[in-house]
Amino acid sequence: MLKFFKSNLDSTLSEVNNFEKNTWVDLVNPTKEEIKNVSEICRVDSSIILQVLVEKELPRVKKFDGGVLIVIDVPFMKDKSIKNKYVTYPLGIILCDSDYILTVSLVEHEFLNKFKQNKVENFDASKRVKFLMQILFTSSSAYLYTLDVLDEDIKKVEKSSYHSTNNKQMLNFLNIQKSLVYFITSLRSNSMVLEKLQKENVISMSKDEKILLEDAVIENKQCIESSLIFREILSSTIDAYGTIISNNLNVIMKFLTGITIVFSIPTMIASFLGMNVPLGNVGESDMSFILIVIVSFIVSFILACWLKKKNML
Known about the structure:
- The chain is α+β, with helices and mostly antiparallel strands and 313 residues long.
- It folds into 2 domains: 2-247, Beta Polymerase, domain 2 (2-Layer Sandwich), CATH 3.30.460; 248-309, no CATH class.
- It is 58% helix and 15% strand.
- A 7-stranded mixed beta sheet has the order 2-1-3-7-6-5-4, sandwiched between helices.
């Protein structure tokens, strides 16, 4: 998919139909023809674009003949049918010497919709370096938003896990834990990209653009700290959840064992009286059956009360 966006005089962003100077070119899982077309017009080697279209491409900064490539990892829900199935996908930002800025990715990242829907303040697609810094900052905000979603899910799972005895909630916890591992790894890699942009003269930046980069660095560090905190909390929660499941199973087994003992009394009495031996007056009375049932009930009731008093039922 290939789309073009250009800032208007009133600072709003609108979609255009073709290449224009100072436009934002958005490539999402592009075809070979789209890559070739962008490569020729923007004067960027197609191999540079293809490098980003790899699921496991690592975050990095690369200066090449015709521009600069910045690759970062961004959170993405890979499978919406599985709760909390988040991973990270690479997003490539290419600052072209031909006055274009390209964003290249395998999947459509939702946080970029903020730019497309004019929800980012002081955004101008023609100011390519500033746009890059805003992308770096907003991508970190996307991590924080996803962490908030995971935190809410953790709380919901905790509430429903107190009386649980199955593994469904445990699988939810494990999915969240996997997501946090992806986030921490990707955020640390993104941190190295941001530090390289800060320390090395890869891109010429104005004072305001340097401030935006510093904000992005701070936001990224905050994301790392939040992810580590969530991971520690989740690790403790999983251990506690395993203990809760074990205790709940023990309570159920204790109850079932007590019920089995209580109901074994009538069975035992009926077995004794069912032996092929003389029973005297017990076997000759018309009330024998009722008496045996009453006696069995009384003995079982007394035993149940005793087990309950001993906290065994």
